[in-house]
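Think of the structure tokens as a kind of shorthand, similar to the way a musician reads notation: each symbol stands for something richer, in this case the local conformation of the backbone. In the example below we present two proteins back to back. Begin with the first one, reading the sequence and then the tokens, and try to describe in your own words what changes along the chain.
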Amino acid sequence: MPGLVSIVGAGPWDPELLTLAGRDRLARADVVVADYLVNPALFVHCRRDVQLYQRTQSPHGPFASEAHGQPVVDQDEIHRLLLAKAGAGLHVVRLKGGDPMVFGRGAEEAQVLRAAGIDYEFVPGVSASIAAAEAAGIPVTHRDHSPSVTIASGYEAYEKGGRGVDWEHLARGTGTLVLMMSVKNCRDNAERLIAAGRDPATPAALIRWGTRGIQRTVVAPLAQLADRVDAEGIRPPAVMIVGSVVDLRAQIEWFERRPLFGRRVVVTRATQQAGELLHMLAAHGADAVAFPCLDLAPPADLDALTRAVRDLGEVDGVILSSPNGVRAWFDALASTGVDVRILHGKCVAAIGTGTATACIERGIQPDIVPHQARAEGLVDELRARDMLARRWLHVRADEGRDLLAAAITAAGGRYHLVIGYRVVRPPVPAMLTRSLLPPEHGGEGCDAVCFASGKTARHFLATVAEAHGEPAARELLTRAKVLALGPVTAAAITALGVRVDHVAESTDDHAMLATVLAALQR
């Protein structure tokens, strides 16, 4: 049976502006085909096994498939991809920046799907034509200024197709004018409006990356706007606003007042686990960048966990080191046909509040959560309770320190390690690594990089070095503030020869947010 294509509007950039319906479609998608102007942070809503395609460089460049590595070159190729995946019975999400019906070519894709007998649906999104203006403190309508708003293309491609803009009509109007895709033609568009009768002194603005933490807004009289844009080096994507409503920005501008506005903060974790911190940073005005450094893979010994469940009677307690370890352990319980009741009488120790929360969500209140969210803290807690000499099962990742094993064994206890999952380095689109480089090297730079573990730091360095060379990777971290989640992570980063600027006091997202604010807020 043919599948379904959900043509979803992703909103302008801010991940908080994705609709609930859009989030639902991403969570159920087998395949996601995303445009260049879609925030990668939205992919945290996808399943781990999703086939992901995203345009890599510009609206006219190729797509790159993280699943298969095959580029999708043009619109016709996008059509073929949608037909092939949906024709195979898969649920495909076509994820578009803004709204798919506002200069998004969503209708064209729907026509192709209809002709092929493929079911489709539209999920509206927040259009950048409205959202960018709002983020800049510019209302597109106002009772004292503008009774209407007109959204028009500022891109010459429509003229080449014989569907040019009626500049005389736009110039005579009394409402607000929003010109999309208008950076390249900013001067021509302004001159055409003026030639058609619009007052050269009309307030105007150009907003780049609206709703993004690196949003830039240039305001000038219409006749002078292009000069200001050129002087400040504004590049696409941007929205042009013309009308007296622009003057209201001086009174109600708000977005740029957030404490982390203008700061670019990189979050290096497994993409599916970075969502909360990304949203918190964005809410404080930062341009939060999801940089996937970790991916999870099954352990080499697939039966080790189930054997540990069957042999649970031979241990006195279970140590869980991470939320991923909790997930692996409880999945093993379910796979063997038992539930949390099998842990009755066993001591459950969770290292870190995130791990404890993951246990609580699965119906278990940990008996021990050390104040220090690291192995040393658990050793101290077990020693204080005279519990080191007991029989312990430890579920963690494939790499880790031997401190717990040494302490328990030295005290006369028995330590059994089970690998619940492996941590591997995922592929990262070249567009993302390049965007972190300084402007003189073609990127946008970054102000801070957040590391939650030594492994994320190693993977980050390796990924950037593969793409741009070891010196570029080191220079990136030299220019940015390096933030570590806890002292263990800080020590591991220092061992890599990287300077650590700030260390979060505890190992949770709120502590990392506080560290970012301390390091970067204006």
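Once you have a description of the first chain, move to the second and do the same.
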Amino acid sequence: MPDTALQIDPRDNVLVALVPLAAGTTVHIGQSFCPVTENIPAKHKLALADLNPGDLVIMYGMVVGEATQPIARGGLLSTRNVRHRTGGYTAQRHPVTFALPDASSWSGRTFMGYHRADGQVGTRNYWLVLPLVFCENRNVDRMREALEEELGYGSSHNSYRPLVRQLVSKQAVSDKGISHESTSRAERIFPNIDGIRFLTHQGGCGGTRQDAQALCGLLAGYIHHPNVAGATVLSLGCQNAQSSMLMDELRARDPQLTKPVLFFDQQRSGRETVLMTGALEQTFAGLVEANRIARAPAPLSALTIGLKCGGSDGFSGISANPTLGYISDLLGELGGKSILSEFPELHGVEQELIDRCASDELAQRFFDLMQAYSARAKAVHSGFEMNPSPGNIEDGLITDAIKSAGAARKGGIAPVRDVLDFPQYATKPGLTLLCTPGNDVECVTAQAGAGANLVLFTTGLGTPTGNPVAPVVKISTSSQLATRMGDIIDFDAGGIVTGESTIPQCADQLLDLCIEVASGNRFTKAEEFDQNDFIPWKRGVSL
């Protein structure tokens, strides 16, 4: 008979209901049992012992809350009788080691990727069109309308489409690598280019100089991204985010400037037609060159995986998230990279991560970033304890510490090899902590800007989030969600909850899927829906 409740850690004084539990029934945990004194919804928690006001709630072996009212053994924990509380933490690390999974069976595996001149390997081959300032969003959209239909990436109409059609016809005469016969999605003019991505945003001017610098750093990360062949950048000319600032950020990531970056300044161009004609003609020439690259075998060490959760529920920390943690550990053993972010959702597990840092310097950096972020939240009369959404709470994550303890399991148990602030770029093999918000799109935007060429995204409630350059693989925490919202879910980790699968088994299956996606043999549901979400994190104020 499948288990009906789970004690995650032997030190826990609460259980997780794996199925709805009726008052008057009994749940068995190993050799012991616990009577159920009131109805407990699936994913929620019941007390394993009597709790009095002030008693600490222990889950995942750590403090995740404090009782505010008496809770009888077998009773339901809720926002009415429990409040957020965490254990303290310091920058002093107490080094720990864990037995990591054996990655030897994966050591010879490869994926088919796009090899870049700087040594990175892409899972997709895109060209970017982006503005340095929101004033150019319209022109970026006009380029989108002109290019997508004529090149087989979409459907739209505008006056610049005939120009692109002429460029296609001219090139078809001299280059047999493209076809002007078809513009369908299946038979694109540039078969080796997965798409042109148009990134509009609301920044670049009017905010602080720090915001402009951060935006340029993020955009430089996207241009430097292994899934990107080159970029077209539109500038008004007078904004805070200058082209020189973007180039400085790009040189910091790619000193040799190995990719083509085409700049067009509207104030210098004069009329819009001059700007747009030049941008379209040179972009088309860049696409011709980008189409010459083809996929070739690459080791799994060339993967950089973003670890993300959104629309989390009470099963996230016991099924999908630890599956990602297992993959993160495997990839680190193979020399690959993984990125754990969402710093508000690491509140309560700070000491565990500090103890896992590979050096005192990294521990101090993580401590400082968490302290600074918390202070900024309090300065606007908020705090990490306000992180859980109504959907999180309804599905069992009643405190930020409970949510954080489950979210942190995406990072596995391996040492932390680097700690970065937004919008820095991940370069060290192993697990990197990247300071970002918990907001789904802002976080994934940042992870891609840090070099993630694949994002693994767990969800218990369902979310369609995607990214313009990095494929986003959605993993459901339960089979019910995978069935109910199958149009946005790529992988079902629910078998772990029902006992039909184990975390290592699920991780192996998911890593196989990752290889298929990375090789271009499968597209994620977000890609199929053209779900290309892009929201830069804006820390400062508007001026």
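Compare your description with these statements about the second chain. The CA atoms of residues 211 and 540 lie 6 Å apart.
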